[in-house]
Amino acid sequence: MKNTVITFQKAKAEGTKLTMLTAYDYSTAKLLDEAGVNSILVGDSLGNVILGYEDTIPVTMEDMIHHGAAVARGAKNALVVIDMPFMSYQVSVEEAVYNAGRLMKEGLGGAVKLEGGEEVCPQIRAIVNAGIPVMAHLGLTPQSIHIFGGHKVQGKTEAAAKKLIEAAKKVQEAGAFAVVLEAVPSKLAEMITKELAIPTIGIGAGNNCDGQVLVYQDMLGMFSDFTPKFVKRYANLGELMKTAFRTYIEEVQSGAFPAEEHAYTVDDSVIEKLY
Ligand code: KIV
C-alpha cells in the first residue's frame, strides 16, 4: 500500500506507530521499501554518512536532488521525504518554495523536511500552499550545530522546554504534516506528542512519539565516526562487510576467485583457431 501524508494522519488517529529510516541510494531504498517501512528520509545526514563531511552544512541542493531521485526510483510504497539542505530555505520564502519545488520535480520526493520552529513558519506555510507536504524538525537540528555548540540534548530547562512546545504548535499551525523531534527528553517528547494533532517522529526522543526514524548506517553498524546514545544497533554489517572484503582480497591474491563457475566458456575449437 502506498504511504502518503494520509497514512501519517491515520496512524496518529489510530495510534499505530510510524516507521521511517534514511536511505540515499536506489538499492537501499528498494530493500527498505520491500521490508515495509512507511517512509524513507533522504536526510542531509548524507553529508556525514555518504559524503564524509563533519556536519550537514556543506550539503547542496544538487546532492539532495541526486540522491533523492535515486531513492524515489527504488521506493514503490514508502513516502519519500527529502531534506532541504542548509541555506536552501533560510534566506527567503521565495527561495524556500523554489527549492522545495526542485526537490519534488527533480528529486522526485513526496514531501520535504526542514529544520526550525517559528522562524521558518512563513516558509512552511508557503511551501504547503504550493502543494508540497512539509515535515518539520525540532530539538537538535543539525544545521544549527554551531549555535548549539555540538550535538546536545535540547529542551532540558523549563524555558527551553516551553519554547520547544510552542515551536511544535507553531509548525503544526503553519501546515506541517508531521514533526521530527531529535534529541529531546522522553517526557517532553511525550507531552508534545499528546499536544499535537500531527504525528511526532522521534530520534532520541523516547518511546512515546508517534513514530521513529534512524539513520540506516547507524542501526546497521556501518558508520563508526560517532554513534549517538539513541542509536540501537540491529546488526553489525560493518564488521560483516569488512570480513567479506578481506576474504575477497585474500581470494583474489591466492587465485581462489574467480572460480570456474564465475567464468564464461567458449568452444575449444574457437580458441584453437587463434593459435
Ligand atoms: O538528516 C537526517 O538523517 C535527519 C534525521 C536524523 C532525522 O534529519
Explain this structure.
The protein is of the alpha/beta class. The chain has 2 domains: 5-235, Alpha-Beta Barrel (TIM Barrel); 240-272, no CATH class. Helices cover 43% and strands 14% of the residues. It has an 8-stranded parallel β-barrel with strand order 1-2-3-4-5-6-7-8, surrounded by 7 helices. Helix 2 packs across helix 4 (61-74) and helix 6 packs parallel to helix 8 (158-174). The longest helix has 18 residues, at 237-254. The model has no long low-confidence stretch (mean pLDDT 97). Residues 22, 41, 43-45, 83, 137, 180, 182, 203, 213, 215 line the site of 3-methyl-2-oxobutanoic acid (KIV). 3-methyl-2-oxobutanoic acid is lined by residues 22, 41, 43-45, 83, 137, 180, 182, 203, 213, 215.
Brief summary:
The chain is α/β, with parallel strands linked by helices and 275 residues long. It has helices at residues 5-14, 26-35, 46-49, 61-74, 93-105, 121-129, 145-148, 158-174, 186-195, 216-219, 237-254, 268-272, and strands at residues 18-22, 39-42, 79-83, 111-115, 134-139, 178-182, 200-203, 211-214.
Can you identify the CATH superfamily of the largest domain?
Phosphoenolpyruvate-binding domains
- Give the oligomeric state of the chains in this entry, treating copies of one chain as homo and distinct chains as hetero: single chain
Tally of separate helices = 12
| Mean pLDDT over the residues | 97
Q: How are the strands ordered across the major sheet?
A: 1-2-3-4-5-6-7-8
CATH topology title of the largest domain = TIM Barrel
The total strand number stands at: 8
User: Poorly predicted ranges (pLDDT <50, ≥5 residues)?
Assistant: none
Indicate how many domains the architecture comprises.
2
Q: What sequence of helices (H) and strands (E) makes up the elements?
A: HEHEHHEHEHEHHEHEEHHH
Measured as a percent range, the helix fraction is 40-55%
Give the radius of gyration. 22 Å
Can you tell me the CATH class of the largest domain?
Answer: Alpha Beta
How far apart are the first and last residues' alpha carbons, in Å?
60 Å
Q: What is the 3D shape?
A: elongated
CATH 2nd-level architecture of the largest domain: Alpha-Beta Barrel
Strand content: 5-15%
The secondary structure category is alpha/beta
Major sheet: 8 strands, parallel, barrel
Bound molecules: 3-methyl-2-oxobutanoic acid
